[in-house]
Amino acid sequence: MGHTERIIVGGVGACLIGSSVLLNDNWWWWLITLGGVIVVVLALFIKKSETTSDRTGTGLSIHEKDDEIPVFMSPVFASSVQEMQQLGPHSWLTGFGPKDPEVTLRAVVALPAVSASAYSGELASAMTGDPRESFLIDLLESSEFTKWLRQSQPSMTGSPGPTWHIRGWSFAETTELVFAPSMNSTQVWPFLARCAVQTGWRAFTDDVKQKAIRFLVELQFNGWSSSQFQVNEVKEEPIAKKLTLEEIAEDFIELAQSLSLSSVVAQHLIPEADVSKGYFGLWLTVRGHMLEQVVDLAGVRRLPDAVSMSEATKSGSWVSEGGPVDTTWGKVVAGMLDHLLETAGYRGVANRFDGLRP
User: Fold this and answer.
1) Of 26, 46, 68, which residue is a domain's last?
2) pTM here?
3) What is the rounded CA–CA span in Å between residue 182 and residue 159?
4) How far apart are CA 115 and CA 5, in angstroms?
5) What is the number of domains present in the chain?
6) Cα atoms found within 13 Å of the Cα of residue 211, Cβ hemisphere only
């Protein structure tokens, strides 16, 4: 019996005792009865507040005993598609390096569900440590995604070629890899890529849990376009040029297509899990600048006093064999960029991305 229930029982008892002698004219019996009624009303109000907080409020369940806490307590979302928002650049695996990247393009797939945790006391992954990290590096190095990265990555004079590095904070269920010339934490690279894999458990009830995986690929830019890269003929220093909308769209499609690697990763790390379906999310995030300061918006005009927007996101259902459900990556990316520009007050956007909509 909880504290609130005890209060209710006590109040009801006071009411019964007082009411049993209401025929007496003693005024203090009336006070006992009135006090019991007040206690019961207040206790019922508190009980209702606790129940409401359990369903909404912070989104976390309230339990009286530690052993009643479930394996994973997830926020309350209207749908798993909305739940994908918690995996954006501002909330999960923030930027690498001494400063936040100016522009971040992120793609994530979560299989079979979004919320997953390593707090069950049992590892979900069949591989940890060196074997897991070696497998991921070998997979990425041989992938079309890395081949594309090396073709689009600007080469800087005096810098070694980029390769995949394990970031030091990685642990059993989460592995982060960075594609850069080195892991110098004080160096601000003009362009780098990241990949992250998180395995864990999705709790459906207190007694039923299922293995799950998150797979992330990301591009970060700091004042440089991945294809428009120039070198000063005198000092051999890079000259910053803005990203174009077409570059952003093409980069997003490459990122989205590389999410297919998640199926291979899942087969090795959680081989017995059903990851045929899940959810995807795409994010475009601009930090510290107006959109037009880092993106070439030639041919697009901005309405006076329009509200500045710094992030666009798109999420939906995913099928491992075919990618996004009932659509194409081109349509997904085009819709996301259209929505960002129009919401931020930019005009002249119509038909800009029609080439992505077959």
Assistant:
1) 68
2) 0.72
3) 9
4) 33
5) 2
6) 18
